[in-house]
Task: structure prediction
Amino acid sequence: MAEPAYLDASLIAPPAEDAPTERRTAAEERRRAALDDRKRSFLRMVSHELRTPLNAVIGFSEILSHELYGPLGSPQYREYAQIVHDSGVKLLKLVNQIVEIARLEGHVTDIKMTPESLDEALEDVMEGLRPEIARREVIIHIIGQGALPLVIADSRGLRTMLSNLLQNAVTHSPAGGVVHVAAGRIGGEVEITIRDQGPGVDSAELPRLLQPFEQGGSPLTRNNEGVGLGLPIVDLLSRAMGGRLKLSSSLGAGFLARLILEAG
Result:
């Protein structure tokens, strides 16, 4: 006699008790996606509403400071216009950093990973920092320039990280100081090092520097501008790209930043 046929329901459908869990998970994912969309919309709105008037302030103050439509009269007016322009530029930079921190902490930054040339990225960054480098009389020495390795990174994010690290090194370097930049491949990764000859910070302070709005030294005694967003942005961006940032320093021994990314 033939054996009776039977159907193993587990082969065609999950147990009944799993269905509510799956529905809850799907609903949670939809809520998270909707929340991310709202965050992106809010950040775009804030970015636009803050940047638009600031760009007008910067643009028109530059026109006034250069007297493009005729003389202003007293030289003081040109000086005041330049102060307005410089203040607008600083405020715009702060707005950009705050928006970037909000995007990264809210996990709503769009990261597109592609092979990137460190030589080209550093060249772009150096061009933007050239006036600041000249003003502070700092020398940037890029070891192996022209033959630096490729990395896998987001193009804009890579330039943001390098700019923030170099800006930090230039800001804390003495006049005539040298900032050394190097990059080398270690296995499947590339380690980018940026070392300055500044005063350095106590090693116990290093973890605090990766927290937004933190700086080394007392707020009453520090001499450098900024609100302490550069290094946290680098840390968050590097982690979003599967990399990491390592800092080392001690008082009187300068500051070393090591940015580690996937090799291209």
